[in-house]
Specification:
alpha/beta, 2 domains, 6-stranded mixed sheet, 4-stranded parallel sheet, 11 helices, binds flavin-adenine dinucleotide
Length: 481
């Protein structure tokens, strides 16, 4: 519930115990304080008292953060030098800059250019411990996070930022045939499949099979699908154009399929249309209103129509991390946790859910999109609310600063919607490039990515055109393929 503007007396709920269990910093049971309450203040301030240590001295509240993506990492950074003890748990050792994943998938960048070890990023944070582990459940009643080895991490405050994975709309059997793009492994698998398709086509004598090898289908016309389709078209039209003897890579078919009637549904219509125009200019066949009904090793089915294709990529949907279910609280249809205005879970003021895993709303009641800026801002906000709660202050409702939406379509064109200002073409691409480089973690990555983009821009070449990986067991097509 929102508080009114003005001065308000705040009574801390009687949580019981002596003052060691509930030190003054957190407010004593029955304590009354007078404070300024602004419009966005939420009345339900967490009243979490840390357990005493063996010698009965108060210890710092424990904050456990699940996920070192955008939300979790920025929450951890914001808790630097705060009077809390932070543990950040991730099943991977690196923070990944997902917006540039498609560039790894399309051989423009190498994995290390867009990922950094979480331990290295946080090494100067004395109050923070990094754990490489998979979280398998949250025991909200015991206030513990359960790890894959069966051990438990107790918390006073939890920040859950475990993100999402691919959703195949009830067709999980499509996953090995049409990998999605979410992790570095996915990107390398897509790179391997795309580059290998050209190599196999070079050796293929059967024209129909060669055509299928040179047909690339991307399912899903959101930003990831648009970026993937555009960059595969560029590889074939420019990068590989003169590298083969028996095939003409420029004749490769790249088909982008979208079930809705236009691309980029989260952008204004004008920008969706512009993106389609840019893609067509690159030779991409854009098919809107195209509902995929089947995917098999031979290609894609659209009702009665079959499109023979050996490479199918999935960019059509996401589902929430299964950790959400283990909380035992209200979820939305996509399995995301329904959160309150201050980002905490109703009934659990000590649990904050942020980023892609949260179904939250902005200050105008509009659902928040699953984007990096939302996760980053929520990370900062959740950390600030934890600090407020630790001090015995009220938490505050999240206020989202919408700085816009961008998608790139090729080496020098993009579309951008920045606070109502609609940019297209080179100027949008420049804005996109600056924003992405600026937000990369680490100076080294910023410099490396900028240099590689300049090189690629001038030469049309892609520096990471290597087929090094074995087929990924998770996503390799069945042996019969
Ligand atoms: C290909 C792609 C392109 C994108 N492009 C853009 C873009 O251009 N602009 C934009 O704003 N947004 C973009 N996004 C969306 C953006 O990346 C997400 O909104 C953002 O990453 C969400 O941050 P998060 O912290 O909620 O989750 P994530 O960044 O996904 O982080 C989740 C973290 O939790 C860890 N984790 C998950 N489950 C567990 C577990 N059980 N145990 C331990 N650790 C776990 C994961 O390893 C990961 O590190 C893109 C996303 C993708 C996939």
């Amino acid at each position: 519930m929102l508080g009114a503007v003005g001065q308000r007396r705040v009574r801390f709920p009687p949580v019981g115990g002596d003052w060691v269990r509930n030190p003054p910093a957190l407010g004593r049971p029955g304590d009354e304080r007078v404070g300024w309450v602004v419009a966005e203040v939420v009345e339900s301030s967490p009243s979490v008292a840390p357990e005493p240590t063996a010698d009965e001295t108060p210890r710092e509240p424990r904050v456990v953060i699940v996920g070192g993506g955008f939300g979790g990492l920025y929450a951890a950074k914001a808790l630097r030098e705060q009077p809390v003890s932070v543990t950040i748990v991730d099943r991977r050792n690196h923070h990944l800059f997902q917006p540039l994943l498609y560039q790894v998938a399309s051989a423009a960048l190498s994995p290390a250019d867009i990922a950094s070890p979480i331990r290295a990023i946080l090494r100067k944070q004395a109050n923070t411990t990094v754990l490489l582990a998979e979280v398998i459940a949250i025991d909200a009643a015991a206030r513990e996070v359960v790890l894959d080895d069966g051990t438990r991490q107790p918390y006073d405050y939890l920040v859950l930022a475990a993100g999402t994975s691919h959703a195949y709309f009830g067709h999980d059997e499509w996953e090995p045939l049409a990998p999605g793009l979410k992790s570095l492994e996915d990107a390398l698998e897509i790179r391997r499949r795309v580059l290998r398709a050209f190599e196999e086509a070079e050796r293929e004598l059967n024209p129909a099979e060669r055509e299928a090898l040179l047909t690339f289908v991307v399912v899903g016309g959101g930003p990831t699908g648009v970026e993937l389709a555009g960059s595969i078209a560029e590889i074939s039209r420019f990068t590989l154009a003169r590298d083969f003897d028996h095939i003409d890579p420029t004749k490769a078919r790249v088909i982008l399929m979208e079930g809705a009637d236009r691309l980029l549904l989260t952008f204004p219509e004008k920008l969706g249309k512009k993106a389609a125009t840019y893609l067509k200019r690159l030779g991409v066949q854009v098919r809107t209103g195209a509902m995929v009904t089947g995917i098999d090793p031979q290609g894609v089915l659209l009702g009665e129509e079959r499109i023979p294709a050996r490479t199918v990529l999935w960019a059509a949907g996401v589902r929430a991390s299964p950790l959400a279910k283990t909380l035992g609280v209200e979820l939305d249809r996509a399995g995301r946790v329904v959160i309150g205005p201050d980002l905490s879970v109703p009934g659990h003021p000590e649990i904050f859910v942020i980023g892609d895993l949260a179904a939250g709303k902005d200050q105008r009641g509009k659902p928040l999109p699953g984007t990096a800026p939302v996760a980053i801002q929520q990370g900062h906000w959740a950390a600030a609310n934890i600090v407020r709660a630790v001090r015995g202050e009220l938490t505050r409702s999240f206020r989202y600063k919408d700085r816009g939406n961008m998608a790139t379509v090729g080496r020098n064109v993009a579309v951008a919607d920045i606070k109502g200002l609609k940019l297209t073409g080179f100027i949008a691409w420049l804005a996109w490039a600056v924003v992405h480089v600026f937000n990369l973690i680490g100076y080294k990555n910023r410099v490396l990515v900028t240099l590689q983009w300049i090189w690629a821009y001038v030469t049309f070449q892609r520096g990471a055109r290597l087929i090094t990986e074995e087929p990924d067991a998770r996503v390799a097509p069945p042996a019969s393929a």
